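Hi F.,

I've been meaning to write this up properly since the lab meeting, where we talked about keeping a consistent format for the predictions we share between groups. The idea is simple: the sequence comes first, exactly as it goes in, then the structure tokens exactly as they come out, then a line or two of notes. No screenshots and no reformatting. I'm using this chain as the first example so we have something concrete to point to.
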Amino acid sequence: MNLKTTARTEPVATAAGTAVSATVVVAAGLALLRAFGVPIDDTQHTAIVGFVGVVAPLAAALWARARVTPVPPQHRRE
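Output, unedited:
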């Protein structure tokens, strides 16, 4: 299964993975910047990672929702 097929057949799973990946990449990027001497204190680091941790899943959910076709509930079918 390749990424293109997965994105079409399982958009929510793909979006969730993307949200987690975005948070991890931001945290790693901040750690790298701090290692090279960029003045980011612990409070700023926590705030940035927390913000991305909240926004990334919301953005991923909106992206996934646009790719899902609503269907009627199974218990209401006639």
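Notes:
Residues 12-65 form one domain.
The CA atoms of residues 25 and 49 lie 10 Å apart.

If this format works for you, I'll send the rest the same way.

G.
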